[in-house]
Write a structure and sequence with these properties.
With 294 residues, the protein is an alpha/beta fold. The protein folds into two domains: 73 residues, Ribosomal Protein L15, Chain: K, domain 2; 207 residues, CRISPR-associated endonuclease Cas1, C-terminal domain (Four Helix Bundle (Hemerythrin (Met), subunit A)), CATH 1.20.120.920. It has ten helices and eleven strands. It has a four-stranded mixed sheet with strand order 1-5-7-8. It has a four-stranded mixed sheet with strand order 4-3-2-6. Strand 3 and strand 4 form a beta hairpin. Helix 3 packs parallel to helix 8, helix 4 runs antiparallel to helix 5 and helix 6 packs across helix 10. The longest helix has 23 residues. The radius of gyration is 19 Å and the shape is globular. Belongs to the CRISPR-associated endonuclease Cas1 family.
Length: 294
């Protein structure tokens, strides 16, 4: 898997030659496709050749396309043959309600804990109480109650997560979309069926599972954005994108974001195969600096 994340916001022609990504602007740049983790295209005048998109898919490069609000709205993912696809699909179909309920309980507990880590005082204590109260399938709505306390504590009583024109919401949504795309790619690469989820069941959503599995990362993404990305009057895309280079703690070790997502998604796959929630490995900390490659 590559380690470079390419962000393109100026008019650009993108092609490939000799397994190199060729970026033509006022100058020409070339980057080995093997080194690339993701490409984010945020300019309507950009053009990219079909052979380049195919080459990116072959090398498991996630290609994002942004909308008028500069938020990623679609992603190109590899449609590759996975040698273990059918057995994994069968294991997903066979997941019982008890297993799904216990997995969702662990995911929501992790989400609330990671949100609580961004708070202090009584608000922190309230979220910890809610975390301990989460049941299978979160039938007592601890996640929703935690969110109400969490966002008011961080951004004030008048804050509304549905206000798309708000700078904070725009920044959070941008960060969520980027990480969700990385999760989508990993789900596809490891042979899971992305529409088969635990909690989300939207018939029009091909990636319900991604919306389940992003939940433990939300508090970590919030931490990054709160501490690094809200100093400007507009969405600081450059700073938000650096989350792709951050360190996430999972299973007792710090990993790059891509590796942490891979470990998490693969652990979910093992839960499906073994019919046991005990194998789920959850992220629980983020370093507020970029990952250092040796």
């Amino acid at each position: 898997m590559g380690f470079r994340n390419i962000f393109i916001e100026n008019p650009t022609k993108i092609s490939n030659k000799l397994n190199q990504l060729v970026i033509l602007q006022r100058e020409t740049f070339t980057i080995p496709i093997d080194d690339i983790n993701s490409i984010i295209i945020d300019n309507k005048t950009c053009s990219i050749t079909s052979s380049t998109l195919a080459k990116c898919s072959e090398n498991n490069v996630a290609v994002f396309f942004c909308n008028d609000k500069h938020i990623p709205c679609s992603i190109l993912l590899p449609y590759e043959n996975y040698y273990y696809k059918l057995p994994i699909l069968k294991s997903q179909f066979k997941m019982g309600n008890r297993l799904k309920g216990r997995l969702w309980q662990k995911i929501i507990k992790s989400k609330i804990q990671n949100q609580a880590n961004n708070l202090s005082g009584n608000d922190y204590k309230e979220l910890i109480v809610l975390k301990k109260s989460v049941t299978e399938y979160d039938n007592t709505y601890c996640e929703a109650n935690a969110a109400r306390i969490y966002f008011k504590s961080l951004f004030g009583d008048n804050f509304n997560r549905r206000d798309d024109d708000n700078l904070v919401n725009g920044s959070l949504n941008y960060g969520y979309a980027i990480v969700r795309g990385i999760i989508c790619r990993c789900i596809s690469a490891c042979g899971l069926e992305p529409s088969l989820a635990i909690f989300h069941h939207n018939k029009l959503n091909a990636f319900n599972l991604s919306d389940d599995l992003i939940e433990p990362f939300r508090g970590l993404i919030d931490n990054w954005i709160i501490n690094r990305c809200l100093s400007k009057k507009t969405i600081d895309k450059d700073e938000i994108l650096k989350i792709l280079f951050c360190d996430i703690k999972i299973n007792g070790n710090y990993q790059s974001l891509s590796n942490a997502v891979k470990i998490f998604v693969n652990s979910y796959k093992e839960c499906c195969i073994s019919s046991s929630p005990s194998k789920l490995l959850l992220p629980n900390e983020i370093k507020l600096r970029e990952h250092e490659y040796e």
